[in-house]
Every structure is written in structure tokens, then in C-alpha cells.
Design goal:
mainly beta; OMP/PagP_B-barrel; Porin; single chain; TbpB_B_D; 183 residues; 5-stranded antiparallel sheet; 2% helix; 8-stranded antiparallel beta barrel
Length: 183
């Protein structure tokens, strides 16, 4: 397992399964954590997953008539146009009036799983809008080369934090899935 800036990584000895997840204490989260993983890498039958976990805000405790902006980060896994697998991270911003929501993922960085090379992956950045229902929200998102969906939740007693998952696809087999959190 390795750690850098509050992001933890783990890999099995056979290098077929790996995960990246956020250390909630290092990131300042009180109510959540999140991560992404690949199982069966290189076997032809691998699977990708992402999750956002924590203490969900009860619908009755979601603020009304107020607005909030949450800032945080994402972790994910991607296949870029070159066909190579990557672990990704980005800055995330979620703005809401608790009936509508705007989501933006920017500054995406990618680490090639096979070579360890780090590169900018702005083609995986996305923005979008959606709606809030109780303690959850959804948004359709798009970027320069991808489109997809974000599913999110409010965490904490009074929607103190936000988190969720995303999945986007694009031309040339581009696929990106991950999770995010913000305070």
C-alpha cells in the first residue's frame, strides 16, 4: 500500500487487483470516504467499481432556502484513447440550492497503471447540472471528449459534506469511472 496527499493505494501481489481510496482524516472528512478499484486487471474479465460511503443526511435535515458550495477531489480509473489503463484524480466542486445542483471536475491528472507516467487528462474533465431529491442528487455531465452521469449524496447531520460516483464514456473506447467528496 502506498500513500500520497491523503490518497491511499493498494495492489495485490499478482497485480491483478488494485484500489485507490481517500484517507478521510487526511482530507478533513468527518462523515464520508470514497474510492475506486479494478479487479481482474489483465485477465480479460476484469471489473471496475467506485463507491462513496458515509453517514447520509436524512431528507428532513437537508437545508431549504439556502445555498452551498462544496470543494473537494475525486479518484477514479480510466481507459483513455490510447487504450491504456489509468488511475485518475481531479478537483471537484459542487454548488447547490438544495433543489438544483451543478457539478464540475477539473484539473484531471492520470497515472498510467503500466508505466507509472503521470500526465494531464483534461479530456476527462466534466461539468453538468441536475436536481436534488431529499438527501441525493443526480446530474448529467459532459466534457470535451466524454459524457455521462454523476450520482451524489449529502453527508452529515445537516448536509455538511457531499460525495458520490461518476461514470463517463467517449469516442475511441474512452471510459472513466470514479468517486468524489467535498466539504
Amino acid at each position: 500500500m502506498s500513500s500520497q496527499s491523503g490518497i491511499l493505494g493498494a495492489e495485490t501481489a499478482n497485480q491483478q487487483n488494485f484500489a485507490v481510496f481517500v484517507d478521510p482524516v487526511a482530507q478533513g472528512y468527518e462523515y464520508q470516504t470514497y474510492g475506486a478499484w479494478i479487479t481482474g486487471y489483465g485477465t480479460g474479465s476484469g471489473k471496475v467499481g467506485a463507491g462513496s460511503f458515509g453517514t447520509k443526511t436524512a431528507a428532513a435535515n437537508v437545508p431549504s432556502g439556502k445555498s452551498a458550495t462544496y470543494n473537494g477531489a475525486s479518484v477514479g480509473v480510466a481507459r483513455r484513447a490510447d487504450g491504456q489503463p489509468y488511475v485518475t484524480s481531479s478537483d471537484v466542486s459542487v454548488s447547490t440550492d438544495f433543489s438544483t445542483v451543478s457539478v464540475a471536475s477539473t484539473g484531471t491528472q492520470a497515472v498510467n497503471v503500466n508505466t507509472g507516467a503521470i500526465s494531464s487528462a483534461s479530456e476527462l474533465d466534466f461539468t453538468g447540472t441536475g436536481s436534488v431529491s431529499g438527501g441525493t442528487f443526480t446530474a448529467n455531465v459532459a466534457g470535451s471528449d466524454t459524457s455521462g452521469r454523476v450520482d451524489g449524496l449529502f453527508y452529515g447531520r445537516q448536509a455538511n459534506e457531499v460525495g458520490g460516483t461518476f461514470q463517463t464514456t467517449g469516442p475511441s473506447g474512452v471510459a472513466h469511472a470514479g468517486s468524489f467528496g467535498g466539504i
